[in-house]
UniProtKB/TrEMBL annotation:
Tree of life domain: Eukaryota
Protein name listed in UniProt: Small ribosomal subunit protein uS15c
GO biological process terms on file: translation
A molecular-function term among this protein's GO annotations: structural constituent of ribosome
Assembly, per entry: Part of the 30S ribosomal subunit.
Record keywords: Chloroplast, Plastid, Ribonucleoprotein, Ribosomal protein
Originating species: Amentotaxus formosana
Signal peptide: none
Short name of one Pfam family: Ribosomal_S15
InterPro entries on file: Ribosomal_uS15, Ribosomal_uS15_bac-type, uS15_NS1_RNA-bd_sf
């Protein structure tokens, strides 16, 4: 379903742009970019706070998906290669 982390909104079908999977994929790519930025700029506390906000939003979306459809959740976790909920 999701082949690439750098999903551009124009490439995703219109009916799937707001889906939980596409939102989590987009947030994951932002998290990876911010993590790379923070490796270089360790004292950039504003970006660090933004990173924590994005991580929290992705976590809430994953909890929602976990409760609603466990199969879609497991597929998404496997495709994005991220750690699941504890």
């Amino acid at each position: 379903m999701i082949n690439n982390l750098s999903v551009r909104p124009s490439l995703v079908p219109k009916e799937q742009r707001g889906s939980v999977e596409s939102q989590v994929c987009y947030l994951t790519s932002r998290i990876k970019r911010l993590t790379e930025h923070l490796d270089l700029h360790k004292r950039d506390y504003s970006s660090q706070r933004g990173l924590w906000k994005i991580v929290g939003k992705r976590k809430r979306l994953l909890i929602y998906l976990f409760k609603r459809d466990r199969l879609r959740y497991d597929n998404l976790i496997g495709q994005l290669d991220i750690r699941g909920l504890r």
